[in-house]
């Protein structure tokens, strides 16, 4: 399957909601143009590519919120920002890796490729993301160490580390 973006592929201008701008029409509106995925025969698949098309009905249940989300997404997907679109897609891939959203990962790796991101850039982005994520774990370990110490204060355990 190919892209999900209106920049490179015409998608019928059919707004999700009356309040949504037609320029925000994306993959979640065009049946059959969703992300590619392989299914394991006989296995229960919780993250199914066809579920992306449910965004329209879910959004219809919360039209004001969905319209606001669509407007936000349109602003993020703009081509004229200080951050070039290819970098926006690399950022989106990095966030998708951290949040572990398979739908976002599929959509944004496809968009990254369409916007000129190389396989090497995608791989380096994954490792930079992994390193920063690991740094977040260390940062919280430092917090946990301080909290552990503070929880020992006032309980007759003193201020030292009593890890054993």
What does this structure look like?
This protein has 164 residues and is mostly helical. It has five helices and no strands. Mean pLDDT is 78; it is low at 1-25 and 27-38.
Fold topology:
Layout: H1 55-60, H2 63-76, H3 85-99, H4 102-114, H5 119-152
Helix pairs in contact: 3-4, 3-5
In brief, what are we looking at here?
The chain has helices at 55-60, 63-76, 85-99, 102-114, 119-152. The protein has 164 residues and is an all-alpha fold.
In terms of per-residue confidence, which ranges show pLDDT below 50 for 5 or more consecutive residues?
Answer: 1-25, 27-38
Number of DSSP helices?
A: 5
The proportion of residues in beta strands is under 5%
Q: What can be said about the biggest beta sheet?
A: none
Give the SSE string.
Answer: HHHHH
* DSSP strand tally: 0
The value of Rg in angstroms is: 21 Å
Structural class determined from secondary elements: mainly alpha
Quick one: overall form?
extended
Helix content: 40-55%
The residue-averaged pLDDT reads 78
Give the terminus-to-terminus CA distance.
56 Å
């Amino acid at each position: 399957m190919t892209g999900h973006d209106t920049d490179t592929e015409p998608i019928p201008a059919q707004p999700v909601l009356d309040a949504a701008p037609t320029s925000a029409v994306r993959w979640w509106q065009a049946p059959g143009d969703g992300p590619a995925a392989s299914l394991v025969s006989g296995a229960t698949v919780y993250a199914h590519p066809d579920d992306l098309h449910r965004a329209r009905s879910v959004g219809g249940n919360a039209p004001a919120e969905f319209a606001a989300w669509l407007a936000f997404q349109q602003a993020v997907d703009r081509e004229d920002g200080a951050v070039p679109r290819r970098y926006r897609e690399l950022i989106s891939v990095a966030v998708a890796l951290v949040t572990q959203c398979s739908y976002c990962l599929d959509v944004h790796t496809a968009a990254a490729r369409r916007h000129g991101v190389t396989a090497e850039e995608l791989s380096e982005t994954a490792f930079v993301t992994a390193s920063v994520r690991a740094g977040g774990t260390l940062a919280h370990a430092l917090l946990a160490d301080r909290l552990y110490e503070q929880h020992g204060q006032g309980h007759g355990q003193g201020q030292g580390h009593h890890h054993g």
